[in-house]
């Protein structure tokens, strides 16, 4: 359980990190919080020749809000975002989901950018990022690139980031002020990876849903945006029958794999159940009367 | 492979050493600092036995490389007690029989230190969630949960002292709950005798304070 030897680089600036990535490319791994990478290295499932530790790039740790969009430095710790009054005010869905990311000892190190770059399809952040139409900024020696949520996730633990690119910023649109939200997931134990999880946002006016967002984790090789269910909800008056209908559309949208933890059938079933509960809770929090 | 010079502080004392980049912080603490109170269970971030405080935050020391902790301020289980005087959280674990084999205990203690600092009046559910990142194969957790609840009360009674101390360092004024009499009577080894003596001393101090107040 000891990692294989590697060369350790510790850049102090994004420019320096990007230079090192350009030089070492495929042989290098970026070390952010290390809560996924280091276990893989300890078990020697990953044996990078070069580690580029970005933890001392202070410029990558920030959280601010600009015209209704949360700007989150890639190195911002999950625990910091979870406890941020700004996140609580502008995107309580993110706060609620962060509370279920691993354990507190994971979140004190784990980063927002690292979770997205690692792209574990059971990671809560990926679904929120997808459901809210987030985007990231990546830097490389060639320049800067913006990648929108639908283009980021490719497959299990695979993103469209180039090995020479560094994820530097995550942007997540804030929720509309009157929107309701809900994060629901099923895990065997508190802090375990979710067998299935769903994030919902509902906003509307005069008792009619104007905007529904539904993102899921744990039910496929990438996070899933339930677009058909969202379209079905838009323009409708909330009701139990509508939630049930949307839940069926969510089930139809996911193609989970079965594994030792849960069968594919169970995951499919439970994603609908969770979506229905989440819609109910989101509606109870939404202010849609006016 | 290159060897990196590393200087860091553990429990207020400076340690210097050299390590390959691949050496985990947990191994550095145990092998280079000689502080073997920090235990390694799974070495891949699941069991929580290696939990320490780094710059005040609870972290898994098996998922950090020692070279990453260069210049950091660490706290391990060895930094909790004040000589023979147990930290109120340690005392509460003891009083509530919150350990059997004790292997997981250093990690639980350090998790509890950070947890109670961030949430000094937790509910039982919050305690269970707060401890969820630490595994114990002996106790069934019930006694640990009770110990943390008791520790919260003990620390709250010494809250002023705690607020003045960084990272929940031993508040000397905090008086832990007394041992249940049956358990106290059954316990005979040296450490228990020391604990009893300490309680007696505390009790004497308390009484004399009260007497002083009355005489005023």
UniProtKB/TrEMBL annotation, chain A:
The keyword Flavoprotein applies. Pfam families: CO_deh_flav_C (PF03450), FAD_binding_5 (PF00941). The keyword Methyltransferase does not apply. SUPFAM superfamilies: CO dehydrogenase flavoprotein C-terminal domain-like, FAD-binding/transporter-associated domain-like. Keywords: FAD, Flavoprotein, Oxidoreductase. InterPro entries: CO_DH_flav_C, CO_DH_flav_C_dom_sf, Diverse_Substr_Oxidored, FAD-bd_PCMH, FAD-bd_PCMH-like_sf, FAD-bd_PCMH_sub1, FAD-bd_PCMH_sub2, Mopterin_DH_FAD-bd. It comes from the Bacteria. Residues 1-177 form the FAD-binding PCMH-type domain. GO terms for molecular function: FAD binding; oxidoreductase activity. This is Xanthine dehydrogenase family protein subunit M. PROSITE patterns: FAD_PCMH.
């Amino acid at each position: 359980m000891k990692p294989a030897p590697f060369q350790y680089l510790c850049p102090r600036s994004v420019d320096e990190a990007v230079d090192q990535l350009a030089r070492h490319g495929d042989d290098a791994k970026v070390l952010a919080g290390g809560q996924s990478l280091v276990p893989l290295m300890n078990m020697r499932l990953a044996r990078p020749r070069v580690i580029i530790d970005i933890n001392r790039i202070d410029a990558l740790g920030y959280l601010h809000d600009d015209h209704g969009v949360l700007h989150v430095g890639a190195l911002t710790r999950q625990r910091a975002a979870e406890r941020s009054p700004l996140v609580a005010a502008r995107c309580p869905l993110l706060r609620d989901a962060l509370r279920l990311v691993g354990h507190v000892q994971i979140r004190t190190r784990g980063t927002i950018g690292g979770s997205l770059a690692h792209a574990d399809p059971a990671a809560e952040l990926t679904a929120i990022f997808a459901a809210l139409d987030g985007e990231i900024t990546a830097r490389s020696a060639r320049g800067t690139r913006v990648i929108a949520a639908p283009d980021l996730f490719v497959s299990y633990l695979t993103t469209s980031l180039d090995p020479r690119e560094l994820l530097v910023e995550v942007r997540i649109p804030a929720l509309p002020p009157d929107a309701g939200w809900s994060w629901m997931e099923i895990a065997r134990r508190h802090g375990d990876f979710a067998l299935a999880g769903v994030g919902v946002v509902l906003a509307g006016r005069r008792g009619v849903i104007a905007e529904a967002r539904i993102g899921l984790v744990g039910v496929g090789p990438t996070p899933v945006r339930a677009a058909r269910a969202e379209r079905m909800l838009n323009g409708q008056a909330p009701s139990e029958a509508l939630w049930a209908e949307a839940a069926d559309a969510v089930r139809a949208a996911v193609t989970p794999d079965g594994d030792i933890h849960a069968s594919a059938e169970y995951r499919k079933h439970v994603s609908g159940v969770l979506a229905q509960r989440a819609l109910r809770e989101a509606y109870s929090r939404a202010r849609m009367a006016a | 492979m290159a060897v990196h010079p590393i200087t860091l502080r553990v429990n207020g004392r400076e340690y210097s050493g050299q390590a390959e980049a691949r050496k985990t912080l947990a191994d550095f603490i145990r092998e280079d600092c000689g502080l073997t109170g920090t235990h390694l269970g799974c070495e891949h971030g699941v069991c929580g036995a290696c939990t320490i405080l780094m710059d005040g935050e609870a972290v898994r020391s098996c998922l950090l490389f020692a070279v990453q902790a260069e210049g950091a301020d660490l706290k391990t289980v060895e930094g909790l007690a004040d000589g023979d005087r147990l930290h109120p959280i340690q005392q509460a674990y003891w009083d509530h029989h919150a350990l059997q084999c004790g292997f997981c205990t250093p990690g639980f203690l350090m998790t509890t230190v950070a947890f109670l600092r961030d949430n000094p009046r937790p509910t039982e559910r919050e305690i269970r969630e707060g401890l969820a990142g630490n595994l114990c194969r002996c106790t069934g957790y019930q006694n640990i949960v009770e110990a943390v609840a008791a520790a919260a009360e003990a620390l709250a009674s010494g809250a002023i002292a705690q607020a003045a101390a960084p990272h929940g360092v031993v508040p000397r004024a905090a008086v832990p709950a007394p041992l249940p009499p049956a358990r106290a009577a059954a316990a005979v080894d040296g450490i228990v005798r020391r604990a009893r003596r300490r309680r007696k001393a505390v009790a004497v101090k308390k009484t004399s304070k009260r007497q002083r107040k009355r005489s005023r």
